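Narrative of activities, Objective 1.

The group set out to show that a structural description can be obtained from nothing but a protein's sequence at a throughput compatible with the screening campaign. Below is one input-output pair from the validation batch, recorded exactly as produced.
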Amino acid sequence: MDKMEEKMKGTAADNALAEIFVGKMKTYIKCINIDFESSRLEDFWDLQLNVSGCKSLKESLDNYIDVEILEGENQYQAEGLGMQDAKKGVIFESFPQVLHLQLKRFEYDFVRDMMVKVNDRYEFPESFDASPYLSETADKSEPYIYNLHGVLVHSGDMNAGHYYSFLKPTKDSPFFKFDDDRVTRATKREALDENFGGDYNVNGTNGMKVQNPFTRQWSTKRSMSAYMLVYIRESRLDKILPPAETIQPPPHLPKRLAEERAALEKRRKEREEAHLYMNVQVATEAQFKEYQGFDLVDWKDTDEEGNPAASKTLKVLRASTLTDFVKTSAERFGVEADMMRPWVMVNRQNGTIRPDHALGMMNMTLEEANAKFSTRQATFRLFIEQAKSRDDAGQPVFAPQQSDSPVSSPSEKDKPILIFFKYFDVEKQELKGAGHAYMYQSDKVQDLAQPILDIMGWAPGQSLRLFEVCWPWLQDILLS
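Output recorded for this entry:
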């Protein structure tokens, strides 16, 4: 209710809930021998009524407004008037249009030291007059006759049970039973008499034992009983439950319902077709340059909007080819498809995730590529390399690679290898990706200087200190 009220503030429906469901009660202490009264006016959304010790709704309401006499040692300290005999109690100033009565069917048993359900017989009428419970100053210009329109039932005990309800959805309709997804027409006896609680009565005989369907225990007490009653003020019935043909739904509601149905249908279709799709985690040099850490990118974080270094997860058909996948990725990243080349990422023994080799058989399906080249992790991981330029023939320039063969293949020791560079900013204390370059395995460590200077835009002669990331927690100095 609080959240609904908050959403309705400042709209045409502002305060609508309070006008329907809120009544007012006065808690008072009134001196008997002098003219002095202390009182406080309070709002209420529902009333909690005693069941123990009360046989009917009338007795509960009488008990609620019962007056306590404060006298003797229990006299009231009237402000400035000393100790006085007084009356203490509660009286109602108004009742809401829709009155919710919470029946205290569950209470603490001090003897058994546990919560128990009260299955005593408790009768409630189809209609009643609430005016006897109003104060003398209350507005009684309109009758306070209330008709029963809802009975909420609990069947079972404290340990196990089931909830269902009986409702009259319109002014003159019969009761209907709402039990999970089943809605059936009900008789007045089913809605009222059978939910009074108390002993089972079969052919006029009390005391017959019946097995509780939830606890499997035999008892003479009914396991089903009403725990909440909903009454509507008779004079306001036409306003609270107007004829269906007079109610015009808000213009946005059909659209909202259509969107919800479409979303539900989409989720259903996704579940049915889940076996046809697979997730592919994709990283590019853009994520590498944003990532502050010792791996290439943040593979664990999938919050693409909140973390620019997070890899991107694409849901694709297993049967789609690498060519189709590259085209889809190119549209997402805003790059020409032929300027992109996918690399298989593998888990290494040192705890890092690194590109293993470029994929050249572009007519292979993603499922085949995952089965043949990945390291059997839950998600197929790819690094998308982007060519920096084209040659004279207009073809993208990538370093030569033997298609679908690991870079560590001993058959070609001098082919280019892909090396990634990270730069540690001493002043900002930040470690970020800088770029990548191809080097031959026969090159020396000092040969790395020129590609680094080109990537960073530094002048020749800049002193460098190089480290190799051997493990996520260990770096080995290469050149100083």
